[in-house]
Specification:
Layout: H1 3-69, E1 76-77, E2 112-115, H2 122-130, E3 134-138, H3 144-155, E4 160-164, E5 172-176, E6 179-183, H4 189-198
Parallel strand pairs: 2-4, 3-4
Antiparallel strand pairs: 1-6, 3-5, 5-6
Helix pairs in contact: 1-4
Length: about 220
């Protein structure tokens, strides 16, 4: 092969190699652009989701704060300062039924969303109220469907307990320390409002006290 032909072949190879390098560099640029674009979209999505989650959490807190300030229609209240908080070993005669506070037994009823199928002692339940629990009771006028609905709601709500009480006048009664509400149906929206407001609510004498480790029967 002549020098001229060799030179031409060498130039052709270099041109081909340079063209391949250009193609490779172009592919690398495209890949970088795609990677940056996807990363931007992912980060933007995460930021957007995070902002949505934060806004949702803030809205929930605001709703709970608003519910805590709003009176529950039909609720009855007693002066918490006049409700005794002594530990006693004897039965207590409470001025309301079910009781919403007063002297009580030193042992509380476990109230971590606990559903009792039999009546429980007032003196132990009142101690649970002192810890910030809401006590849900019902008489024989409550339907089986309402009892199931209430049981499901209580079992999913820490700092609540539920038991039958055939001696109460209201069909369904919700009691917290110093306050009480009676309704006819579990579907009454005030049930959820009462729970939101009073489970570990501002009325709690011993806020943060445990609902675990108490009596279970």
């Amino acid at each position: 092969m002549s020098k001229t032909n060799k030179k031409a072949a060498s130039q052709a190879r270099r041109a081909k190699i340079e063209e391949m390098r250009k193609v490779e560099r172009a592919r690398e640029r495209r890949n970088r652009i795609i990677t940056i674009t996807l990363s931007t979209l992912i980060v933007g999505g995460l930021i957007g989701w995070g902002g949505y989650a934060i806004n949702s959490a803030n809205e929930k807190e605001e709703q709970q704060a608003a519910a805590a300030k709003k009176p529950v229609r039909g609720e009855k209240t007693w002066d918490a300062k006049k409700l005794g908080r002594n530990h006693v070993k004897t039965a207590v005669e409470y001025p309301m039924n079910p009781p919403v506070g007063g002297d009580h037994n030193k042992a509380w009823m476990t109230c971590d969303g606990t559903v009792y199928n039999k009546p429980i002692a007032n003196e132990n339940a009142v101690h649970s109220l002192e810890h910030g629990a809401v006590w849900v009771t019902y008489n024989d006028k409550a339907t089986d469907a309402d009892i199931r609905t209430l049981s499901d709601k209580v079992s999913k709500t820490p700092y609540t307990l539920m038991s039958p009480d055939t001696s109460q006048s209201g069909t369904i009664t919700l009691s917290a320390w110093g306050t009480q509400l009676s309704v006819d149906k579990a579907s009454d929206p005030r049930v959820e409002q009462f729970l939101t407001k009073y489970v570990q609510g501002a009325q709690t004498p011993e806020l943060g006290a445990t609902c675990s480790g108490g009596l279970t029967a």
